[in-house]
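User: Here's a chain of 153 residues. Predict its fold as tokens.
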Amino acid sequence: MVLFLGGIVLLSFFFNENMVISQWFLRKEQNDKAELWLLKITDYEKQLNKSQHGYYNLLIGLVESRKAPLKSEKYFKKSLQLGMKMSHNIALAKLSLAGISMAKRNKREAQMYLSEATKDDKNKLLTEQIKMMKAQMAQMDKQQVVRGGYRQF
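Assistant: Prediction complete.
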């Protein structure tokens, strides 16, 4: 029993319990509850370890992207700026930035983020999403040709 309680205390030192619970709610697709748990962290610079700052901004960006995707860009950029240790989280942030760039019709920036995301996805966890994003970018090219006055037969 003492060992179990000691493990919980040690775990809560390295991982903030609010972030762990909000990540669990994000996986369950319960964004409102995830946001409530993240909002309990009032000042992340004082309440979290320095290594957790990037992950906090990533989680805020994921919650915000479900409500207003274009507003979440600043959180993803901040998470990349602060740094994260796991490469698949870096790839997730870059993939999200690629989607935002595509929504803004900035193809060059979207391609840059997609290529960086494929490099950072070392465990191949996001390959399906990257393929879907590339297919959407190809459709975006076709739509621009149609809008430009060229007809497709």
